[in-house]
Amino acid sequence: MTKLAVTLGDPAGIGPEVVDKALRESYDAEIAVLGSRTGGAREALAAIDQAIDLALAKKVDGIVTAPVSKERIAKLGVPFVGHTEHLAARAGVKLPVMCFVAGDLRVALVTTHVSLRKLPGLISADRVLGVIRQTERGLRERFGVLEPRLAVCGLNPHAGEGGEFGTEEIDAIAPAIELARKEGVRAEGPYAADTVWKRPCDAIVAMYHDQGLGPIKAMHPDAVNVTLGLPFVRTSPDHGTAFDIAGRGIADPAPMIAAIRLAVQMCRAGRTLL
To answer: What is the pTM of this model?
Structure first.
């Protein structure tokens, strides 16, 4: 049976509430709940690290994380950009991929929590190719998609309009797609980010955070955050700590339920391919 570790997130947020509500549902999995219902950021981070330790020791198949406050953890003196980066550092993974899943719609990000001012300098052929590879592999190994099709976004409006609005598509994105295709990856693009959503594919590769997350969050509020590239499954509900409604008993557990169910599915898909 699948074994999962579920962290409660920041005790002052809605994490403990949505976990409690989500666990009223039935899952084909053994679930260990980690974390504190009192305290703060230090306890939240300790629960994440405990879950990672269990996963790396193969005592659980995957982890599901409730939201934490990056700001509160950073105030502890810990360089914490987010769950994705922390998980990757602990697991020794150089290029984790943040991917959001809503049914058959999947969106992977080339960059995550970075300033838009710094963004163009981060769009290199090597980075785009690495994310394409990791996404394709994740679709095969974690979702059971045997021949994944990827639609890759451009960075600029109209995918650069032939260089009129920027050259990142010409200099980095198109070459990365071509290299991936030579490796046998079914990648297409670069496409304009405002039209890519209707293209038939198994995943969209977006260049930056809001390019990918704005549309999927608008269409699917219960989308699940997945980290690809780790040696274990990791999912999370796609919402924050919601400190303003914590303790009022009105938090919606649907995203946490979706995150747990997807983690179970991903663990099963991984075992099927072994």
So the answer is: 0.93
